[in-house]
Amino acid sequence: MTGIRGIGLADASNSASDPKAGAWPFTGTPPRWGRFDPPTRALCLACGFALRDAESRGEAAGVTGLVRAGRDFCHAANRAYFVDYVQGGRTLGRSSLFVHTLPTSPAAEAALLFGLHGPNFYLGLPDARFADLLDTAADVLQAGSAEHMLAVAADGGRVVAILLARHDSGMMRTWPTWTSLPLVPLPPAGVFVSAGNN
Amino acid sequence: MSSTGFQRVALVAGDVITAYGRGLDAAWQGLLSGRSALTLPSAADMPPSGSGSVPQGRVPGLTRPRGASRVRALLQAMPLHPAVCGGIPRDAALFVATTVGDVDLLERAVLEDTDLDAGHPLHLLEDVRVCCGTTGPAACVSAACASSTSALARAAERIRFGRSDAVCVVACDAMSEFVCSGFASLQALDPSGARPFDRDRRGLSLGEAAGVALLMSAERAQAEGRPVLGWLDGWGESCDAHHLTTPAPDGAGLVQAVRTALDGAGYHLRDIATICAHGTGTAYNDAMEVRAFRALFGDEMPPVWSVKGGLGHTLGAAGLVEALLSLRSLHAGIAPPTVGFRHPDPDARAPVTTAAMPLFGRTALSTNSGFGGLNAALLLMTAETERAL
After folding, report:
1. Which of A25, B211, B306, B310 is the most exposed place for a label (fewest CB within 10 A)?
2. Is ipTM over 0.90?
3. CB contact under 8 A, B263 and A107
4. What's this model's pTM, rounded to 2 decimal places?
5. Do the chains contact at A104 and B116, CB–CB below 8 Å?
């Protein structure tokens, strides 16, 4: 059976993205934090909250992967890189911008931050529901590629991270009712407060 | 259905377009010939500054429809429509694997200061869905240079666990000023053309390609009388969590991905007859791969080859192109030469050759790695085996 073990919610624009805020999930400021763009910060925060949620139950050890889903890819980062390149005379791009022009770049930063050694990929899902994202993550667990999967829904700076774990070889997947909600736009935080106790 | 209760995953059809031209046969014969399809770009294909004048794997004679992206031109030339692959089922799920999609539309929008949304990969997904005529679930999959490897893994999972019995995977990435300038900024391009696993390698060569693969459950393939090209029996993925662009030097992440694939397939290392490596030609990647293969196989490493000195690094399309070529290699009983390879690297010695080598076995390992420390491995087996449908 695959189950939800932790949930984290973050918004790049709220106070949780401030290292001095009370909800801050890390000890100190993580390395490279100052270089992260708002979507990457929000993703790392949401993952941090989800992992901390699970750690409080002692269940977050083992190989953990990450699947991020949404509609935004890294379109803004791609545009920022190319605008900078054109403004620089179209001779040489800026490598520090180019390395963030992949949809997996924010998730790769999270993998570095949390030591996530499992599969790491991005899903562009135009009409998906949370259950579709969870099923994809559960497939990865079922295949034995990871012991835990962070299923991350991202909509710009707003991110929901859900930590899944598999407990036996069965295929049963019972998702909470709120997972029938559309992935994008993300539902309000209150939905997840109640769902976390589901 | 297998004894475990899970569906076996059959690869029933596939096609590619690469710098060697249209079709898998062109790519295969090109590799066997030892001739590189890498060429210097024409003046029309270079940015005004003239940067990027290094060998590239461009598809010859590609004409871009007015207003369309180069990726759309690749898909049109392959071609991609509902009748390919012996007919793409309408109910098939669809995965489109790419790193940057229609990025040349974004380039144009920036240069002309127009549509902010131009080149968004979800537009590509919708167009590919129309081209394939599918109505099933659809998604873009992106995992850097392992994008189509990851998409094949997602497809195989859907089939193995009974969520789909037919999945179409389309992979595509095209040459662009965006990508060329980016890799140039990383000083990752070999001015002489990629020389995978060679002592004197200096970097990669960019290429472009599109590919399509149709996967089905064994039951459906049999029910529809589809020929089975091969089985996708194992897959594994991992993340080094080491560096954003540089692979972990010890290759531990790739080892983890291969071991996961072996466990999932129920195979042993001795079953693997050949390795189609990522083999980009960069110092770090190739050394990492050899360390990983050495850790796995010791001195019993099977023949290793890379396609990237021949057709370039096709980014998000690489995994699918190489998976199909791996099956072709098994069918032919030959590991092709690694184009561009001349001198063995004493620090990264592997059974890579300048000539084709005979194969003994029916299973190939195909590996890819990418930015973010992503690793992916596929285990493919030819259909004529003791494991019947």
Report:
1. A25
2. yes
3. no
4. 0.95
5. no
